[in-house]
Amino acid sequence: MVMAAIMLAFVAVAQNKMKDKMITYHKIQIEDCNVFYREAGASDKPAVLLLHGFPSSSHMFRELMPELAGDFHLIAPDFPSFGQTESPDREHFTYSFDHLAKIVDKFTEAVRLTRFAMYVFDYGAPIGYRLAMWHPDRITAIVSQNGNMYDEGLGKKWAARKEYWKHPTSELRQQFASAFELETIIGQYTFGTPENSVGPDGYSLDYYYVNLPGRAEMQNDLILDYRSNVALYPNFQQYLRTYQPPLLAVWGENDPSFIPAGAHAFRRDVPNAEIHFVPSGHFALESHHAEIAALMRKFLAKVIK
Fold first, then answer.
1. Second label for 174, Cα 20 to 30 Å away, from 2, 71, 231, 242?
2. Which residues of the chain are modeled with pLDDT < 50?
């Protein structure tokens, strides 16, 4: 009888651990969008909001979330015009980073995230940094994976984009549509990564999503509006200097878009920031999710009380 009870207890513990690591999938109405999101981990654990980049979706966290779900409550939404979230018509919905950040802000309130750490990457970074400026009291920590807020962190390709922002002609807008081509997306995933370390799943799914009807023009709107993020860099930096949030920068060191100087620059505003590099590219989770999860777990355990 005693052995049977012990065995049942072990089974119950194992089942609870498996349940914690299980990812569930949901939708919730925010303004004109039915927002899709992934969730994992018990709701009484410290919360982490995961904000994806371009041209991806919350799918990019498919391997990270089970690694962390035993210790944290993880929520990862798809932005409007990304992944499984609805994409309202451009005639009735403004595709700007400020508007996407407001949608995510309302989303956090709808799912009752009152205090949370943020994992920000690429496009998710300026969205997350806006949330931090608007609600500094809600942010327990920031994990920036190639999530830039410094001019020196912009790679060479941004020179052409800055010219486009100054002179946004229809011809240049069409040229930047190359960002949605399969070869370009594959390059974003594989450049600078260890050989044969990136599977085709992520970039194949991204290519499918960005080519859904109407999304190319929505994404083009965001490429042009990215200039609003660069204009806000001084404001983001002032937020860091004022509030000194615990900050971990973990960077794919071979990323041609957001180069290592952007990670080092965080220490200028947050002297205690932790800076780490992994031998990968832009989508570092594709090849190094276990290493990044380990760094996050150790860091967040120290700073979230």
1. 231
2. 9-15
